[in-house]
Amino acid sequence: MQEDFRIKPSVLADLGPLPDVVETNSETAWDAFLHLMAEHSPSSSGTTPSQRAELGRGHHLRPLDSVSVDAVLAQARRFNRICPVEPEWLRLQAILTEYGGCGAPAAMQGAAFRREPPLAKRIAVREQVEWAAERGCLVQVYAFLEALPEHRWVHMDDE
Fold first, then answer.
1. How far apart are CA 118 and CA 63, in angstroms?
2. What is the C-alpha separation between 20 and 9, in angstroms, rounded?
3. How many angstroms separate the CA atoms of 7 and 117, rounded?
4. For the chain, what is the radius of gyration of the CA atoms?
5. What pLDDT, on the 0 to 100 scale, is given for residue 89?
6. pTM for this one?
7. SS3 (DSSP) at 57
8. pLDDT of residue 65
9. Could you say which residues of the chain have pLDDT below 70?
10. Burial readout 130-141 (b: 16 or more C-beta within 10 A, e: otherwise)
11. Are 139 and 55 in contact (CB under 8 A)?
């Protein structure tokens, strides 16, 4: 005779209350995992280089066709980033003007940079990225953000 599994108590019931699982910063963890995998993957001889955009010094180069608003925003939010530090944000503003023309959303500076909360700064960066996408200069923005050293970013922990 077969035992009815609905009557038998679960093994998990004997464990007592289980801790809540909290996922924090999974984008950053996933990027770190991909970076480690790329470092340890065997290289293939006899392959030909792909058509890739030269988007900075780092290891996160993307093909030109995969640079999207989401990819640029993911780069801007890595490691709990809020925005570039004030001088770098002004450099981003100059890139937007150079490649996209006049009318780019302004970078925060001075008292506004010190006064505004982190979310407002992130929204301002997002507006600049979306503006760059509309003007066809998203690749340049991605290249700039990707090449920016970590110490030239404002992080959530800094605020």
1. 30
2. 22
3. 54
4. 22
5. 96
6. 0.61
7. coil
8. 57
9. 1-27, 40-66
10. ebbbebebbbbb
11. yes
Residue 145's nearest CA partner among 77, 70, 51, 98 is: 77
Question: What CA–CA distance (Å, rounded) separates 152 from 155?
Answer: 10
The full DSSP string for 88-153 is: HHHHHHHHHHHHH-S-PPPPP-HHHHHHS-HHHHHHHHHHHHHHHHHHT-HHHHHHHHHHS-GGGE
Q: If 0-12 CB within 10 Å is exposed, 13-18 middle and 19+ buried, where does residue 90 land?
A: middle
Question: What are the CA-CA distances from residue 95 to residues 88, 89, 139 (Å)?
Answer: 11, 10, 11
Written as six digits, the tokens of 16 are 């007592």
**What is the pLDDT at residue 32?**
72
pLDDT of residue 53: 42
